Amino acid sequence: SFVSGPGGRAQVLRDGVAVRGDVMGIRLPDGERRWIEVNSALMTSDESGERSAVSSFINLTAQKAAQAQMRAERERLLASLESTRAGVWEWQVDSGELQVDTRWAEILGETLQSLQPLSIQTLIERVHPDDLARSQRQSQAHFEGSSAHYECELRLRHREGHWVWVLARGRVALRDEGGRPLRVYGTHTEISQRKRTEDELARTQVLLQGLFERSTLG
């Protein structure tokens, strides 16, 4: 059984102000642990004027488990990236807040301080106009569940003005009850050298094809 929340209830009776969002863990008789949110408000009897504290309880166990899973996945992701040169980013979809690590900033010739204030709009403004629509289509497909993750090659504007090719990968880490994405995390890996090599190979193939077509040799 649950008998708790005296601190919040006492505060309500003392100050006459509602106490909300008091989160605590409880243990059931069978040993199961649950997380609940306690909200307490003041009630005054019209007849006697007697004051009492009324509390409601919200079960947060599933939400806490989802948050713990998200933290574990994030820790595994960061551990797997320690030996790579990928930059890590996290996007809070509802607020637009964007968090990045030092490597992510380095790819664009920036520092974490020079990027502030940082939001998803900061990233959108850095994307090459020819790549933006494609990136948004692929991210939307992932949001809607059509793809298991988001992946796109795109160009970002460097601090010095040139374009940097990156391989962007991301995945929704948390959704609301309606299935809408709340938090997305992922990586940006610079692939500029690979793209230059591909361009050089493509030009070489075009040149060789032209030589073969003009050649009189069998």
Largest sheet: 5 strands, antiparallel
| Class based on secondary structure composition and strand pairing | alpha+beta
Multimerization status: single chain
Distance between the termini: 91 Å
Rg over C-alpha atoms, rounded to the nearest angstrom? 27 Å
Percent of residues in helices: 25-40%
Strand order of the largest sheet: 5-4-8-7-6
Question: Overall mean pLDDT score?
Answer: 83
Tally of separate helices: 6
Strand content: 25-35%
Q: How many beta-strand elements?
A: 8
| Low-confidence blocks of residues | 1-5
Order of helices and strands: HEEEHEEHHHEEEH
Give the overall shape, derived from the CA principal axes. Answer: elongated
Which SSEs are present, and which pair or pack?
Blueprint: H1 6-15, E1 19-27, E2 33-44, E3 51-59, H2 61-81, E4 87-92, E5 97-100, H3 102-107, H4 120-126, H5 129-143, E6 150-157, E7 163-175, E8 181-190, H6 192-214
Antiparallel strand pairs: 1-2, 2-3, 4-5, 4-8, 6-7, 7-8
Describe the structure.
The protein is an alpha+beta fold. The chain is built from 6 helices and 8 strands. The chain is elongated, with a radius of gyration of 27 Å. The model is unreliable at 1-5 (pLDDT under 50).
